[in-house]
Amino acid sequence: MKILIADDSRVMRQIVVRTLRQAGFGDHTLIEAADGQEAYDMATKDQPDLVISDWNMPQMTGIEVLRQLRAAGNNVKFGFVTSECTPEMKSAAEAAGSAFFIVKPFTAERFDEVFAPILG
Response regulatory domain location, by residue (predicted)? Predict the structure, then answer.
């Protein structure tokens, strides 16, 4: 499977990659986007099987990326790994079609719990 990791922090993208490997998902193809517009473009062009997105990014926020993908008929599995967590954010994510919402800091065990049903 192809997994798109979208976060404006290169260090955070590396942490997500490392945690995916620690959770046993390192054999998937991992691609990265450095902002929301790039995430949207890559989600459209590269057709990943899963998008793991930060909430706050330049160009477009993660929720804007998700909403635009859904508006365009793209049903890629999409969810958030973010440092912010309010009930309003979770509700907005679920309403937009988010498959998961992981709050930083996270663990390999949390990734396994969330991604095992998605990635097998």
Answer: 2-119
